[in-house]
Amino acid sequence: MSRTLPATLGELKQSGYTSRSVKEEIRRNVLCMLERGDTLFPGIVGYDDSVVPQIVNALLSRQNFILLGLRGQAKSRIIRQLAAFLDERIPVLAGSEVNDDPLHPISKHGRTLVEERGDEAPVDWLPRESRFVEKLATPDVTIADVIGDVDPIRAARGGHVLADELTIHYGLLPRANRGIFALNELPDLAGKIQVGLFNIMQEGDVQIKGYPVRLPLDVLLVFTANPEDYTARGKIITPLKDRIGAEVMTHYPETIEEGASITRQEAWLDRAPGRDGHAIEVPDFIAEIIERLTFLARSDKRVDQRSGVSQRMPISVLENAVSNAERRALVTGEAEIVPRPTDVYAALPSITGKIELEYEGELVGAEKIARELIAQAAGETFEAWGGEAVADELDEVVDYFERGGVLQLGDTASGPASIEGFSTVPGLLDVVRTLGLAREGSAAYTAAGCELVLEALVADKRLTRSEAGSYARASRRGPGPGGLGKPTFEV
Predict the structure, then answer these.
(1) Nearest-angstrom CA–CA distance, 147 and 206
(2) What is residue 137's DSSP assignment?
(3) Do 422 and 450 touch, CB atoms closer than 8 A?
(4) What domains can you pick out in the chain, each with its CATH number?
(5) What one-character DSSP code corresponds to residue 104?
(6) Considering Cα of 323, then 479, then 462, then 351, what sign does the dihedral take?
(7) Angstrom distance (rounded) from CA 54 to CA 48
(8) CB of 30 closer than 8 Å to CB of 59
(9) Contacts of 109 (CB under 8 A, 6+ apart)
(10) Which helix (H) or strand (E) holds 201?
(11) Fewest 10 Å CB contacts: which of 125, 229, 333, 426?
């Protein structure tokens, strides 16, 4: 196509332009991207061998499809990326509300314009981002919102009878003609509106205020739904579901590595540099704790698994943990901003607000369950980092507490102050260095490693941790004076 785009129907014909359906257009573009080896859905992690191939198959088959999955499984993000498969721009008749193809107009406005102006009919060029229309389904959505309605004011101003097609104010679906129409949470849509979608998909027509209107729309329909919504708020009517070409099931990350990769990608960590120009650093084992607690929540019987545990939870937890470390650095005057397990506990509001509990869980309470999940996640992370290799050294650490030692860690204790406290526990720093949880010259990083070891011992029920952050022997309930001559070390 020439640099100067055709501005009239005649120029468009002379350019050799040929029309093709939006589904054929997407199919051709996807085939080209596959041939070039392009990444079809950038930023989508863990779906390469499951969800993405099924979506691609549906697009190559020119089918409408639905993404079915629990909350926080990137359904909306995926459908918004479908616009990248459209052509950069397409020609439309100027002034058309339904993106009329200049060669095959479907609206009365478009047909009349071509009849009156012929090859001089003006042509505009519609960019791909304007060809994607998204709507969140709610019970109050009307047929006028989706399909359209008669506009009496337009009828009066134009001198038209109400039955004239020119009096219609088109809804979102006709305005998505020659593009993609995405409808989120389909079961929330009232049954009669779903029937309207069914008629458009099957027959290409709809009745507005009792008047039949022929709208042979050229559109790719994409839906999302949460299985829980089928019983909680509504359902997809059988005739509509039968006309949806493919039902693609989404899922949560299948491995800790995939989950951690998504969390780091989505969390807001690119903040202004810390004091003295030092940037924020998140130790890998801290990110792993956060991801593991999410996986544990997804298998905990006290958590409602039908509702799911969104991937937004670890993202929020990581952001909050970093913010708590940032706050501590400002209070203590530290240059290093390094989150540690204490900061994960400080992010409890990001956990309790994102899990739905079963009856058994309600009896225990969301905060207590969250604390247990953090400790258990820390224990599993410690084992993954080679905890079994230092079993003998851990006995020396536990022995300090068995003999009455108590370690009180404050939420705002600086890295150097925390290391001073940890150094009173025989063998603790040696364990941290052996497992590679320490960093030379970084007190904050090493302090995070020390906390991980103590949290692992709490998970193994060899130590206890109070809500105030004190560690003591397993038989002790909360902080107290050191027994047998052992002092309480407070940071």
Answers:
(1) 8
(2) -
(3) yes
(4) 9-249 (3.40.50.300), 256-490 (no CATH)
(5) B
(6) negative
(7) 10
(8) yes
(9) 93, 95, 96, 97, 100, 166
(10) helix 191-202
(11) 333
Q: Which of 20, 110, 68 is closest to 246 using CA atoms?
A: 68
pTM (two decimals): 0.87
Classify residue 352 as exposed, middle or buried by CB count within 10 Å of its CB (0-12, 13-18, 19+).
middle
Please list the alpha-helical segments (H only) found in 245-300. 256-266, 284-297
Instruction: Kindly tell me if the per-residue pLDDT of 39 is higher than 50.
Output: yes
Report CA-CA distances (Å) from 38 to 33, 61, 90, 178, 307.
Answer: 5, 20, 23, 24, 35
* Span 374-414, pLDDT tens digits: 999 999 999 999 999 998 899 999 999 999 889 988 778 89
d(C-alpha 257, C-alpha 287), whole Å? 10
CA distance 97 to 162: 18
**CA separation for the pair 288, 380 (Å, rounded):** 9
Q: Residue 188 has which token pair?
A: 């929330």
**3-state DSSP percent of the chain in helix, strand and coil, to 5:** 50, 15, 35
Q: Which amino acid is at 21?
A: S
**CA nearest neighbour of 68 among 50, 83, 48:** 50
Pairwise CA distance, residues 230 & 224, whole Å: 12
